[in-house]
Amino acid sequence: MSLNIYTDAPSKIDMFEGKAHENLAQKISEIAQDDDINIIGLDGYLGSGKSTIIDMAIDKIKGNDIHVIKFDSEIYHYGATKKALIDILYDGFKQTPNVNLDELLKCKDLALGNIYNYKKIINSKISIWTVAFICSTILSLQSLRYFISDLSGLFTTNHLPFSYYVKVALEFILVFSPVAIGLFYVNGKNISEENGTKKIKKPSLGDILKRNSEDTITEKIIINKEVGTLELKSALEGFVKCTPESARLILIVDNLDRISPTKIKEIWSDIELITEIAGSNLKIIIPYSGKHVAQALSDDGHEGLEFISKRIPVTFFVPPLISAGWRNGFIEFWKETFEIYDENECYEICELIERWLPKNYSTVTPRFIKRIINDIKVTSLTFPTFTHDRILVSFYVLMCRYSLLDFKSLIMNYDERKQKDDDIIEVVRMQVTHRQFNRIFDSADDWKKGLICIHFQTNSEFAISELIEDPLLNSIKYRKPKEYIELSSMYGFDKTWRKALHESSIEDLILFLESMSTTDKSRAHKICDEIITQANKNKLLKGEYVKNIVDALVNVNNHVKLNSNEFFLVERVTALKNRIKNPSAFYDLDEVARMNTFEELNSLVSITEEKFSDNFSDISGEIFFEFLLGKNELYQNLDIENLILSLPQLVNGIVFSLKNEIEFNLFSEQVIEGMKINNANFEDLIDGEVYAAIEERYKKFMAGAELNSIIDLRILCLDKRWRKTNLTSYFPYQAKLLEDHPEEYYASLIAHKINIGDKSSVPGIPSLELTSSFKETLYNYLLFSNNLDVIVGALAIEELKPYIAPSLNFILDRGKVKRLHTNTFIRTLYGPLRDITSVEKIMEFFKDWDSFSDSSIGEKNHDQINQDFIYDLRVVDTLPKFKEKIKSFISDKLSTKTSVIEFIKQASAVHLEMISLVESNGGTIEFSNLTRIFSDFYSEEDIKQLSKNNNIPSIIPLLNADDLDEVLKSLMDLLERKDLDSLRQIYVIRDFGEHLKYDQSNQSDNRAIARLFTYSNDYNFLAKWLDVQSFSLSKWNSADKKTVESFVLNNSDLFPTLIKTRYFQKRIVSNQEATEALETEEDTKA
Q1: Which of 587, 636, 901, 994 has its C-alpha lying 20 to 30 A from 1047's C-alpha?
Q2: Spatial CB neighbours of 883, under 8 Å, sequence gap ≥ 6
Q3: What top-level branch of life does the organism fall under (predicted)?
Q4: What is the predicted pLDDT for the residue at 158?
């Protein structure tokens, strides 16, 4: 069928009697062509047909050489309005005949900021290649004449001396040197970095010469510039200048009343600007709602109207539609929309419109007529039709959709309601409306059913249904979801269902919900919340374990997700947990109740989705070993694999199982996870009572009989004989275990040999493949070793090292050592461990013993500490206490003059490594009372000892700034002593030269320093130090000055910095002038 829906587009003709719209359009078109009036307003209500009038007026204007520009304010409401206005004005002016298009475009681009100028300054560096090329070119040009002359001499003169050929060769090199430099340059590579990436580019010959330049660049680009009033003014003035004076344009600013007040004010100011600048070339027509625009321009509506009247002196008003006029228009629209026209139907609907016109409409407008006809048309498509349905649809739309009234208020009985009780609607008008419907329909029930059909968009059969209570209760009790589904489609079911919730038992409701979840998941989801609410009220599961109810809840949860925080679930799970947490009360229950506890908890946890292991960080070892260990498949929801027993509880569980002869796997994940080497609780178990279960297996093993399984082989680890007695001779009798489980066999044998210290070879081990399974198995056995020392010690056995190392790595990674002798670790164990694993891994393992640094570093035999351990402390962030203890130890070591002197002369590699560690951590040592040690050492120590290398460079970084300053002052005093052997001063500079700076501000006698210059040929470090010092030689006495001048001038290569100073440059020039004068005098005498 054809769906004739009206859009918001303006009509092409005036469909209302009186032709008010057409008359207004005619007048506007006439005035718009008058040069004396530049702006015309059209005031009217929202939807009153202003756009229609404007379109009709434009049609009448067209053909009179007037071009129309339409600016829709609503379209550009959330954008850059001024920018859009400039673009639209440009498009309109562009259509004007004889317009200067180039200048017009330029004006637009300038206003929008698309054209801009900028200066770009390019700075270049003059490279060594450029300097060399220019110099070589100058030399080449100067040498060319001589080269040509001398070259011709080679062919014309015989018996030339050898020096002549050398001269020609040098001239050849000078002439062609620019070519050579150019070839070297273009064959080189330019390396540049762009965006962090290095790029290699082959240079061209033209790149050798560069210059500084300043470029002015003009570009035209599209940018997002903020366009303001000045830009709009600039664009408009430019547009007007580019347009012939005879050109006429009309700008229509439409939908001004559909935008926000802020935007209205902005566009209003733009309109004022346009009218002032454009003059008679551009006329403006503004359709608007005076009420809305006035409120936007000013909080005082009357003041806003004054603003409007000032700016728009000529304003037309769209008249309201008279009753007869809009009714005829409504009929015309109705005929166009609906195929069947009923005059009485249209009359009744018009009556309803006039009676219930929404409050936000002051009068019926063309837009309102289109809107309500569209809504009646669309709503009529959503329910089965019946007689006079469109009348009820129009009433429903007016009341519920336009006036937003509650649907129930439409079908209430107003005959007995008094007017004074009116709170939402006018009772009298509703009574009149109901009488109108009673006249049209046969009875009140008919039109009320019709309204229900319209509101719920369904058939009237669903309106009434009262006889479904008993069938509904039976469908719940006997779990018949199909009957429930049939009943649920009847009208009134919801109320009956709520009543059935209270009359049925909660057990029946849960079982019914289970059957419904497997039949119709979506319906089960709808009723689930209500049933679970009843379960919370009735405290479901509060009694003994009822398997079918718990299973039903699990099945429901599988199809319809339950809330894990439901009260009855949380309460029951909490009670079961508390039962497990109290071992004595738990074992007071009968055996069936104990088993049911875990079965029920396993089911309920699948609903609550909580981790069982999170609530039992210290579960009883007895309960765990009897009911949970190895039951991962039976109780899949209890995440047994994540339960970690404390070591005491682990030992309790093992003892409980041994006493009660409960078979268990010693290497199960939970047991291994809780095990740690050298744990006191476990050591007590090993050294304590020998249980019958263990003794029985040992007797069998030592008698040469085969054990039943690897479970029995593992139990042997729980006796001290496995650590202390050599049982290797009994292993060969376990041929069946070797055949079925070779990895288990060899892992047990190797671990046993490690514990008893047997270094003999293992028969058949070369055939063993080093698999991940073997590594894990050996790791499990090693956890039952006496201590870490015996395992690390076994690394010395080359045959076993490849097999032990991976499992030992597992022990370190997983922190499986409870107690550790730190003194032994850093002296004995660290080196072998460092050979098989990374430093980071060892340090991460060892960080738990950081608090034992005092006992480890404080003991004697510091030289025996592993040097790599001290070195590796520099590269890790862990073990802060060890680092602090080492710093304290070094401070104590260097706390006296005697100890410092001894350290300077000779220090162990470990102590030097400790100093490097303190230095790398930015630490310093207090030397405030010992700053004279160094000056005393250089002045008093035997000269032969001073000539040897010492450890002072290692100590210097440990001095803080104040102490170092004091040390340097005392050493500088030594350098200035004339009575001191110069060699002692030289050794001071050797060790402290990097820090010493000569200061002669208070010195008049510099003899000691001057004397040092004479030793510079023998000591390169001395010459380098003297070269970088600052000397005011002009203030020295003549003897010292002469010594320094003579030595520096004669050994200038040793003092490249000093020789370039102004003082020595003057001496060089003076010497050259004296030499030249002497040569001149000798030439004169000759």
Answers
A1: 994
A2: 873, 917, 921
A3: Bacteria
A4: 72
pLDDT grade for 202, boundaries at 50, 70 and 90: low
pLDDT of 194 above 80: no
3-class state of residue 967 by DSSP: helix
What tens digit of pLDDT does each residue of 860-919 get? 667 788 888 888 888 888 888 888 888 888 888 888 888 888 888 888 888 888 888 888
Q: Is residue 449 in some structural domain?
A: yes
Cβ-proximal residues to 608 (8 Å cutoff; 6+ apart), any chain: 564, 565, 569, 570, 573
**pTM confidence score:** 0.50
**Same domain flag for 178 and 189:** yes
Helices (H), 660-762: 669-674, 680-687, 692-702, 710-715, 721-724, 735-740, 742-756
β-pairing, 314-317 with 39-43?
parallel
What does the DSSP assignment read for 415-457? TT--GGG-SSS-HHHHHHHHHHHHHHSSSHHHHHHHHHHHHHT
Query: Which residue reads 């249904």 in tokens?
Result: 465
In total, the chain counts a number of residues equal to 1086
pLDDT over 60 (residue 33) = yes
At residue 823's C-alpha, the angle toward residues 818 and 826, to 5°, is: 90
- Among residues 254, 261, 252, 253, the alpha carbon closest in space to that of 293 is found at 261
Q: In this structure, are 328 and 440 located in the same domain?
A: yes
User: Which CATH number does the domain housing residue 30 bear?
Assistant: 3.40.50.300
pLDDT reported for residue 741:
92
What are the angstrom distances between the C-alpha of 947 and each of 988, 992, 996, 1021?
10, 14, 19, 14
For the chain, the average pLDDT equals 80
Pairs from 759-764 (Cβ < 8 Å, separation ≥ 24): 759/796, 759/797, 760/728, 761/799, 762/799, 762/800, 763/732
Give SS3 for 219.
strand
Q: Is pLDDT at 424 greater than 60 in this prediction?
A: no
Q: Is residue 511 part of a domain?
A: yes
**Rounded Cα gap, residues 681 and 652, in angstroms:** 9
255 half-sphere exposure, CB direction, 13 A CA radius:
14
Rg (CA), the chain: 53
